[in-house]
């Protein structure tokens, strides 16, 4: 096992721990629920040869959150959907850099990073709250929860990315 695999496993476990012990406890007015664990989808290295492994790990991440949160599979479905759509979202956000496999999230512009994170988070949250509420009668509630939680998750994700990214010397 190389150093990169070990760091991915540790990152995976730390995100599950933080989400289930700290961030699941935040529920402000029923609309602000940060789901910081989807940072794993951002930082997992992109490689077309490892797509199946990435999608499996994403499912396992969502399933782990579901098990600890007793949420019946909505996190697994939302994380799996976001992981499956990640190549499309990356191509739309990063363009040519993505097509030539030279993309590193820490080396992208701030605008590209915001665009990518926003698309990924909105995709995840829309699927999550649509499956959680599962009613067209509550469409306004789904949209409110998606938008407010996405904004909160985006802010926390940007803070985490800036804190834990390698500084250029």
TrEMBL record:
User: What keywords are assigned to this protein?
Assistant: Membrane, Transmembrane, Transmembrane helix
**The keyword Transmembrane belongs to this UniProt entry's keyword annotation:** yes
Q: What's the protein name? A: Rod shape-determining protein MreD
- What stretches pass through the bilayer? 6-23, 28-46, 52-85, 114-140, 146-164
Q: What organism is listed for this UniProt entry? A: Robertkochia marina
């Amino acid at each position: 096992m190389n150093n990169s695999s070990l760091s991915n496993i540790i990152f995976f476990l730390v995100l599950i721990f933080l989400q289930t012990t700290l961030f699941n406890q935040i529920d402000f007015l029923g609309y602000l629920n940060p789901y910081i664990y989807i940072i794993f989808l951002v930082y997992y290295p992109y490689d077309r040869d490892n797509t199946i492994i990435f999608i499996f790990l994403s499912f396992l991440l969502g399933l782990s959150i579901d098990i600890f949160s007793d949420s019946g599979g909505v996190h697994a479905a939302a994380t799996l959907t976001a992981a499956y759509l990640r190549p499309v979202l990356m191509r739309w956000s990063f363009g040519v850099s993505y097509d030539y496999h030279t993309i590193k999230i820490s080396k992208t512009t701030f605008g590209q990073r915001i665009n990518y994170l926003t698309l990924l988070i909105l995709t995840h949250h829309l699927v999550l709250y649509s499956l959680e509420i599962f009613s067209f009668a509550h469409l306004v509630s789904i949209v409110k929860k998606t938008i407010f939680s996405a904004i909160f998750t985006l802010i926390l994700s940007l803070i985490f990315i800036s804190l834990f990214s390698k500084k250029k010397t």
